[in-house]
């Protein structure tokens, strides 16, 4: 990898700042952006939209923590050690965008995958989510619990690497 950076306001990485501060100043484009920061719906949504502005054609945006195992793991504010937050809600929302191909890899805590339609895959979004909700933050864990395979478009790692 020619150039690799990490953004975190408190620890590790190469840039000691929030993701908002980073994207405000950023002029670079990236082949791969991995989002694993503040696990709150509003922030993840911002991080996804900013990432899509700075991803190269043919690049990939990955989002950690898309598959919470139980209601506590996705509660905001945080109440458990193992915590995914409500990242899943931001991913459900982005899944409704027909210009993107979106999957959730069934690995670790669920890795959301975003590819721009027509760049890696030809044609249109092959599995869009047809949902029209005003405020995705108001989604309930029960909706996710009952429908997560379709909502998140879950894919096994072995099948995902055939696509990317
Ligand atoms: C689950 S940890 C992941 C750390 C790192 N990605 C790693 O794998 O080691 C989440 C990190 O997000 C950072 N964080 C919290 N709010 C953030 C924000 N607004 N922008 C960027 N990073 C943030 C925290 O400081 C924390 O280190």
Which helices and strands occur, and which strands form pairs?
Layout: H1 19-25, E1 30-35, H2 41-53, E2 55-63, H3 87-95, E3 100-105, E4 111-116, H4 141-152, E5 154-155, H5 157-163
Parallel strand pairs: 1-2, 3-5
Antiparallel strand pairs: 2-4, 3-4
S-adenosylmethionine binds next to loops.
Give helix % range. 25-40%
Order of strands across the main sheet: 1-2-4-3-5
Distance between the termini: 17 Å
Structural class call reads alpha/beta
Question: Roughly what fraction of the amino acids lie in strands?
Answer: 15-25%
Estimate the global geometry from the Cα principal axes. Answer: globular
Query: What kind of sheet is the major sheet?
Result: 5 strands, mixed
The bound ligands are: S-adenosylmethionine
The overall strand count is 5
Radius of gyration: 15 Å
The run of helices and strands is HEHEHEEHEH
Total DSSP helices: 5
Mean pLDDT: 93
Could you name the ranges where pLDDT drops below 50 across 5 or more consecutive residues?
A: none
Total number of domains: 1
């Amino acid at each position: 990898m020619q150039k690799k950076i990490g953004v975190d306001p408190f620890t590790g990485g190469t840039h000691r700042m929030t993701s908002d501060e980073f994207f405000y100043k950023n002029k670079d484009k990236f082949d791969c952006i991995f989002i694993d920061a503040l696990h709150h719906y509003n922030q993840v949504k911002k991080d996804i939209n900013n990432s899509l502005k700075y991803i190269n054609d043919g690049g990939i945006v990955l989002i950690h923590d898309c598959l919470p195992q139980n209601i506590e793991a996705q509660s905001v504010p945080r109440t458990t050690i193992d915590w995914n937050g409500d990242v899943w809600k931001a991913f459900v929302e982005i899944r409704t965008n027909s210009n993107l191909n979106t999957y959730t890899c069934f690995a670790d805590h669920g890795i959301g995958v975003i590819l721009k339609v027509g760049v890696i895959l030809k044609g249109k979004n092959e599995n869009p989510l047809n949902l029209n909700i005003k405020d995705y933050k108001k989604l309930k864990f029960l909706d996710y619990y009952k429908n997560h395979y379709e909502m998140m478009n879950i894919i096994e790692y072995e099948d995902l690497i055939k696509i990317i």
